[in-house]
Amino acid sequence: MKPSGNILFSGVGGQGILLASEITAYALLATGLDAKKSEVHGMAQRGGSVVAHLRYGDTVYSPLIDPGCADFVVAFETMEAVRYLPFMHKETKVVVNTHKIAPPAVATGKATYPDDILTELARQDIATFKVDGFDIARSVGEIRAANLALVGALSSFLPVSEEVFLEVMQERLPRKLDENIAAFQKGRAITSA
Amino acid sequence: MAKADSQKLWLSGNEAIARAAWEAGVTVASAYPGTPSTEILENLVKYNDVYTEWAPNEKVALEVGLGASFAGARVLVTMKHVGLNVAADPLFTASYTGCRGGLVIVNADDPEMHSSQNEQDNRNYAFAAKLPMLEPSDPAEALTMLKEAFELSEKYDTPVLFRTTTRLAHVKGMVTVADRCLGPVEVKVDKNPAKFVMLPANARARRQVMVGRHQELLKFSEAYAGNRIEKGDKTLGIITGGVAYLHAREAMPNASFLKLATSWPLPEQKIRDFAASVDEVIIVEELDPFYETHIKAMGIACTGKEKIPATGELNAAIVKKALTGEGPELMAPVEMPMRPPNMCPGCPHRATFHALSKLDVFVSGDIGCYTLGFLPPLSAMDSCVCMGASIGVAHGLTKAMGGDQYKKTVAVIGDSTFLHTGINSLANMVYNKSHATVLILDNRITAMTGQQQNPASGETLMGEAAHAIDLEQLCRAVGVEHVRTVNPHNLRDTRTVLKEELERDATSVVICRAPCVLIPEMRRKKVTPLTISLDQCTGCQACVRLGCPAISWRPLSQTEAKELGKPAKQKGYTVISAEMCNGCGQCQQLCKFEAISEVEEG
User: Fold this and answer.
1) Which of A11, A146, B11, B550 could lock onto B15 through a cystine, CB 3.0 to 4.6 A?
2) Where are the domains of chain B?
3) Average of pLDDT values for B85-99?
4) Percent of chain B whose predicted confidence (pLDDT) is above 90
5) How many Å apart are CA B153 and CA B185, to the nearest integer?
6) Which of B444, B520, B528, B457 is nearest to B488 (CA)?
7) pLDDT score, position B1
8) Hey, which CATH number is domain B530-598, 3.90.650.10, 3.30.70.20, 3.40.50.1360, 3.40.50.2300?
């Protein structure tokens, strides 16, 4: 029996979620697993909540993760981790970017950003790994590398070796490869300690 | 993966369809962009030896497809589900003419309305237009079945409908690729009026040809390997197809399955045999009870929509719950602010809707990024129906209300949507004398679907320079005497012109022209972001009311306000994110306290 799992990527349109989920998928495929990924384009990409479902295993049928069945949630924005709580179960591992983006109601003063929002995950005893993607991206000198830091943090939990991830990045990243690899490794260090 | 075996690629449904079209020897493809179908032509254009184009609308795209098929070419035409409504006129008669070269129409439905105004189930079109419809479940099947669709089209002299849904179009999976093979039909002018001239005498004869064709297609459907039985537990037999098959297969792994790949016509004998081999038949399908209705009409006992929802998209959990009553206990969602989509920072539409939000007018909207003008804080749209509807709706409203309602009625339509189906309605406004004001939001591109060119953009899908329609001249040509152009980023001018044209006792058009910030020329432009001086900000919120994603409100408590040297009653201040701001200057014009200025270099 090959390993199988469900990874839900969530965030805000424009944060590089598609690239991150793509790198993860190719790494899983490179180990001989089947994988399907579902995305939403169009209206949903205009700064709204964005989600991608990635499923892997021996044979993947449905392209969608069922509620309560996400084994990993990789959230590119803090609040967008908690929004998908109904997709989680007790063993779910959450990798969350501590970067916050105000949704329109908060930006216009009609609502406040719930500062302690991650306590909702703690209340359910969900293992949560915080990644300061913005800080890591800055430290490696590529402001858009935050997504690879999150993939790095996720990678420790997947049945894929670090070498395979590095090969996939070399093959798939069009530019700033060294910076992205550095961000990946910093993210990976957070969860592999 | 790709490296280990060059015959295997990991592609989305849309990428797989583009690949399959190339492999099938397609030489002509036409489409109007529409989620979730757009990426098919965006990928097909990357292959050699295929002519691809964006048509102004889906009706034109299908007519182009027909002409190319009459000439003998293999043709791909793609559109979203509502696009097939626009193309329905040629579709129904194309069923009579049939084709020469294989003609496949990819129709992308959008269950759950991720990016659409309705969730119509276009399998009904196959039944109504008497055309075969194939429906794959995943990218691998999409690739093989699309190639089969061309053979089907040529063998049975029929256009073929090929249905996808969002969860195929935008799902990536492993596919097996092959080389390109050209179609068997010679490309030439082949005059055959009895087949191609659909006046009554010829059409009556072709109608009989269609009756015979349907009988042949039934035989095809019975024999087609894609309609396959997967034997399992005899107590439960599930009839399903498309993406619903994948959900059902996962939810009920032990059941027996009849997986339908021909949504129309249905393989009646195969369905009968399957139903006879199991104790109970359940139909699992997304949206309408399409299989169910036709299977029940065959006199076969089955259950469908009594258990399976007829709205929204399915997943394995919904199917399992419906059939077994079982499901995991879910963690409750946490209340938090929603995050709807928004216009981009620097979007010219935001300025236009800001002006409209200050006027007491009925805004008849249309389909595009600007539909987001409906959302708070601008909340400046009062109706939106379908592509091109804004102008007709505005006209009807003024006719019903009479008096000087035209002074309070505005139609808002994008450049691409205006050329899609808006121009006819503008001609009607002039012809039938209504004096409402039409705003053409001309951002030079079809933006919502991802910046596709249109007849006013000056460039083709294949990257060649092209004539760009002069919208001012076009409006004048249909008889609009008052056509004015404004730069919406200039708020004062826009407001003044709008007020003047609303008052005018004649049909008028205001073209609000500024390019989409996402087109390549704009992305390359150097941006100087703006910043707000905390000292000068009084917390009046005039800039906040633009709803720009780069502008955020920071609330202050009384103590915090004092600490910042602000009056205790100041409720907060605003900040601009330098990373997000694109320096459009809209907020700067709204600030009465000169608190907003360019970020200093260095």
Assistant:
1) B11
2) 8-223, 228-324, 348-523, 530-598
3) 98
4) 98
5) 12
6) B444
7) 36
8) 3.30.70.20
| Closest approach of B430 to chain A, Cα-based (Å) | 33
Number of domains in chain A: 1
Mean pLDDT for chain B overall = 96
CB contact under 8 A, B552 and A29: no
* B228-324 and B530-598 have identical folds: no
Establish if B174 touches chain A: CB-CB under 8 angstroms.
yes
By residue range, what is the domain housing residue A24?
A: 5-192
Q: Which amino acid is at B341?
A: P
Size of interface A-B (CB pairs under 8 A): 180
CATH placement of domain B228-324: 3.40.50.920
Cβ neighbours of residue B208 closer than 8 Å, sequence gap 6 or more:
none
Q: How far is CA B414 from the centre of its chain?
A: 15
Pairing mode, strands B233-241 and B280-284: parallel
Give the residues of chain A that fall short of pLDDT 70.
42-45
CATH number belonging to domain B348-523:
3.40.50.970
Give residue-wise pLDDT tens across range B198-211. 999 999 999 999 99
**Alpha-carbon separation of residue A99 from A12, A136, B300 (angstroms):** 11, 11, 57
Nearest residue to B539 (alpha-carbon basis) of B565, B571, B568, B564 = B571
CATH, domain B8-223, list 1.10.10.10, 3.40.50.150, 3.30.565.10, 3.40.50.970: 3.40.50.970
pLDDT of B436-487, one tens digit each?
Answer: 999 999 999 999 999 999 999 999 999 999 999 999 999 999 999 999 999 9
pLDDT at B3 over 60: no
Its pTM surpasses 0.95: yes
Chain B residue with CA closest to A26: the answer is B1
Neighbours of B23 (CB within 10 A): 19
Of B171, B343, B579, the CB nearest to A63: B171
In this structure, what token pair is assigned to residue B276?
């006879």
CB contact (8 A) between residue B171 and residue A38: yes
Mean pLDDT of B139-157: 98
Q: Note the pLDDT of residue B390.
A: 98
Taking 3-state DSSP, the helix, strand and coil percentages for chain B, each rounded to the nearest 5, stand at 40, 20, 45
A55: alpha, beta or left? (left if phi > 0; alpha if psi -120 to 50): beta
Peptide bond into B345 cis (omega under 30): no
Chain B residue with minimum CA distance to A103: B339
- Of B167, B139, B162, B137, nearest in space to B312 by CA: B167
The residue assigned the tokens 């790994």 is A129
Cα–Cα dist A105/A100, whole Å:
14
Q: Which of B312, B263, B287, B293 is nearest to B121 (CA)?
A: B287
ipTM of the predicted structure? 0.97
- CATH code (residue A33): 3.40.920.10
Tens-place pLDDT, residues A46-84 = 788 999 999 999 999 999 999 999 999 999 999 999 999
B341:A44 CB<8 A: yes
DSSP element (H, E) containing B347:
none
Between chains, do B338 and A37 touch, taking CB under 8 Å as contact? no
Task: Tell me how far CA of residue B67 lies from CA of A31, B47, B60, B89, B458, in angstroms.
Answer: 48, 22, 11, 15, 25
Residue type, B432: N
Interface touch B243/A63, C-beta < 8 Å:
yes
Give residue B589's identity as a one-letter amino acid code. Answer: Q
Burial class (CB in 10 A: 0-12, 13-18, 19+), B327: middle
Q: Does B332 touch chain A (CB under 8 A)?
A: yes
Whether residue A81 contacts residue A121, with contact meaning beta carbons closer than 8 Å, is answered with yes
Is B15 in contact with B39 (CB distance < 8 Å)? yes
Tokens (6 digits) for B241: 């197809």
